[in-house]
């Protein structure tokens, strides 16, 4: 099984190649350039350095979300384009699962925290000691909610992800069980983790984990800011059409 993985769900852009259980290439970068500038050149460089014939690929893996809306769309467009051109399926991997898999082998609970803003995180709770086990599936919740959940489990926790430094103060103030933060080389999304986890998914579930490139859609977990603003605008317009006087009074109160 030969799988090319693409990572574009967060600040890291990356690609990796797994061939029959062997990680033969892993290329990640976190810098100022956008994924649209870096992702395809990275894939091409990985192909060149590993003498990869793209026609020999069995599938393309990618983190399906949650994450950066722009990043997920770039990753999806790249994977779908390659999948359609090569006529091979995709293996969508939940972003939070892939991030937790960075710490496979630890006996502590693993809690990825991706900053979703508005005091929320994309998160989940995992065991990674001998198997990748999901105790709480990826979700978008207030950071204090996941901290309360972890305190209730009474076990040591390792935090990782770009949300960990953002909410470090809250963690330090409210955690009641032992915890620590993952080191820098394991604390962000990695294309290699996506690739290896995708290979495991195929070994365990077979074709059930495959999705056609045409059918794949990212998993955002919540609306984008633009969608929220449009929904709010539509709500206000509906209210104005229903009761203009009430809407006018409400607008006056808001200004005051």
Could you characterize the architecture of this molecule?
It is a single chain. With 256 residues, this protein is an alpha/beta fold. A hairpin with a 5-residue loop joins strand 7 and strand 8 (133-142). Helix content is 41%, strand content 25%. The longest helix is centred in the N-terminal third of the chain and has 18 residues, at 69-86. The protein is globular, with a radius of gyration of 21 Å. The chain has a five-stranded mixed sheet with strand order 3-2-1-4-5, sandwiched between helices. A five-stranded mixed sheet has the order 8-7-6-9-10. It contains nine helices and ten strands.
Task: Describe this structure in a few short sentences.
It contains nine helices and ten strands.
- What is the tally of helical segments? 9
**Can you give the mean pLDDT?**
91
Radius of gyration (Å) = 21 Å
Biggest sheet statistics: 5 strands, mixed
Structural class: alpha/beta
- Beta-strand content estimate: 25-35%
Give the SSE order as H and E letters: EEEHEHEHEEEHEHHEHHH
CATH topology of the largest domain: Nucleotidyltransferase, domain 5
What is the fourth-level CATH superfamily of the largest domain?
ATPase, nucleotide binding domain
CATH class of the largest domain: Alpha Beta
Provide the spatial order of strands within the biggest beta sheet. 3-2-1-4-5
As for the number of domains, it is 2
Share in helix: 40-55%
Note the gap between the termini: 64 Å
Q: Shape from CA axes?
A: globular
């Amino acid at each position: 099984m030969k799988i090319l993985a693409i990572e574009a769900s967060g600040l890291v852009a990356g690609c990796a190649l797994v061939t029959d259980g062997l990680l033969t290439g892993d290329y990640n970068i976190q810098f100022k350039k956008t994924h649209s500038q870096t992702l395809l050149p990275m894939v091409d460089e990985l192909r060149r350095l590993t003498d990869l014939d793209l026609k020999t690929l069995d599938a393309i893996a990618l983190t399906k979300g949650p994450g950066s809306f722009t990043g997920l769309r770039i990753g999806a467009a790249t994977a779908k384009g390659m999948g359609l051109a090569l006529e091979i399926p995709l293996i969508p991997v939940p972003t939070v699962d892939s991030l937790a898999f960075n710490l496979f082998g630890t006996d502590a609970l693993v809690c990825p925290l991706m900053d979703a803003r508005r005091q929320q995180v994309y998160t989940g709770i995992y065991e990674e000691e001998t198997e990748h086990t999901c105790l709480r599936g990826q979700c978008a919740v207030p950071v204090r909610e996941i901290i309360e959940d972890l305190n209730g489990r009474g076990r040591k926790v390792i935090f990782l992800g770009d949300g960990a430094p953002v909410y470090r103060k809250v963690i330090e103030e409210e955690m009641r069980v032992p915890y620590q933060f993952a080191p820098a080389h394991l604390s962000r999304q990695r294309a290699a983790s996506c690739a290896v986890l995708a290979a495991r998914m195929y070994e365990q579930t077979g074709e059930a984990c495959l999705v056609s490139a045409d059918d794949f859609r990212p998993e955002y977990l919540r609306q984008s800011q633009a969608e929220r603003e449009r929904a709010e605008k539509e709500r206000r317009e509906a209210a104005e059409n229903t009761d203009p006087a009430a809407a006018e009074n409400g607008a006056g109160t808001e200004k005051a």
